[in-house]
C-alpha cells in the first residue's frame, strides 16, 4: 500500500498557525500518513519578496513544525531554477517517489484559480487535490477536488508582516519558535 502524503505549498513568509491548523485538519480528515510543507522559491502568482531569503523562510518553517512527527518539509522547489509551477514539482516528485500517493492541498482562493493553473488538465491526472475553505472564497470548480472543512482562521502572512512593520504584536499568530526567529533576525521591520 502506498504512503499517502499531502503537500501544502506556499511562500510561508512567514509560516503561521493557520498553515499548521490546515495541515493538521487535512492530515486527519483525509486520512493521510504525513503532511509535507512545500516552500516555493518563486511562485507564479505572487511577487517575490527579496527582503526575506528562502533560507530564512525555510528556517521559520522548520521552527513552525517542531514537535509534530507527521509534518515534514519538501525542499524540491527551493532547489529548482525559476518559477515554481505545481505541474513541474508534482511530475518530479511522482517520478522520484513511485511508492507515494501525493495529494496537493489548496485553499479556496486557489480552488477558484485552478482553471488558470499551468497544465491543469495534465496535473489533474497526476495528483489528487484537496481543497480547504477560506473566508470570502468559493469552493466551486469544474475540477475534481476533495473538500475538507477546516476552522476559519483569517490569518495571513501579509497581515503578520504588516503587524511587525507597524510594531504590533504577532504573538499567538505564529509559533513561539517562528516568533523568536522573526525577532532575532529583525525580519519584516
Outline the secondary-structure elements.
Layout: E1 3-10, H1 17-29, E2 34-39, H2 54-64, E3 71-73, H3 76-79, H4 86-96, E4 100-107, H5 108-113, H6 120-124, E5 128-132, E6 145-148, H7 157-165, H8 176-184
Parallel strand pairs: 1-2, 1-4, 2-3, 4-5, 5-6
Helix pairs in contact: 2-8
Fold and architecture overview:
This protein has a six-stranded parallel beta sheet with strand order 3-2-1-4-5-6. Strand 2 (34-39), helix 2 and strand 3 (71-73) form a beta-alpha-beta unit. Helix 2 (54-64) runs antiparallel to helix 8 (176-184). The chain is globular, with a radius of gyration of 16 Å. The chain is of the alpha/beta class and 189 residues long. The termini are far apart. It has a single domain (3-154), classed as Rossmann fold (3-Layer(aba) Sandwich). It is built from eight helices and six strands; from the N terminus they run E-H-E-H-E-H-H-E-H-H-E-E-H-H.
In short:
The protein is an alpha/beta fold. The protein is built from eight helices and six strands, in the order βαβαβααβααββαα.
CATH class assignment = Alpha Beta
CATH fold title = Rossmann fold
Q: What is the domain tally?
A: 1
Shape: globular
Q: Please give the largest β-sheet.
A: 6 strands, parallel
Enumerate the strands of the largest sheet in spatial order, edge to edge or round the barrel: 3-2-1-4-5-6
Question: Structural class of the helix and strand makeup?
Answer: alpha/beta
Secondary-structure element order, N to C = EHEHEHHEHHEEHH
In the CATH hierarchy, what is the superfamily? HUPs
C-alpha termini separation: 48 Å
Count the beta strands.
6
Assigned CATH architecture: 3-Layer(aba) Sandwich
- Individual helix count: 8
Amino acid at each position: 500500500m502506498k504512503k499517502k502524503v499531502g503537500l501544502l505549498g506556499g511562500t510561508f513568509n512567514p509560516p503561521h498557525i493557520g498553515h499548521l491548523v490546515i495541515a493538521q485538519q487535512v492530515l486527519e480528515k483525509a486520512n493521510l500518513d504525513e503532511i509535507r510543507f512545500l516552500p516555493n522559491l518563486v511562485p507564479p502568482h505572487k511577487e517575490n519578496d527579496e527582503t526575506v531569503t528562502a533560507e530564512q523562510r525555510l528556517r521559520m518553517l522548520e521552527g513552525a513544525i517542531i514537535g509534530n512527527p507527521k509534518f515534514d518539509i519538501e525542499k524540491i522547489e527551493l532547489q529548482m531554477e525559476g518559477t515554481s509551477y505545481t505541474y513541474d514539482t508534482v511530475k518530479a516528485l511522482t517520478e522520484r517517489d513511485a511508492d507515494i500517493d501525493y495529494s496537493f492541498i489548496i485553499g479556496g482562493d486557489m480552488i477558484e484559480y485552478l482553471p488558470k493553473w499551468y497544465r491543469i488538465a495534465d496535473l489533474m491526472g497526476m495528483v489528487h487535490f484537496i481543497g480547504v475553505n477560506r473566508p470570502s472564497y468559493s469552493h466551486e470548480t469544474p475540477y475534481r477536488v476533495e473538500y475538507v472543512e477546516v476552522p476559519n482562521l483569517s490569518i495571513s502572512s501579509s497581515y503578520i508582516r504588516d503587524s511587525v512593520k507597524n510594531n504590533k504584536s504577532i504573538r499567538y499568530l505564529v509559533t513561539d519558535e517562528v516568533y523568536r526567529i522573526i525577532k532575532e533576525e529583525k525580519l519584516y521591520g
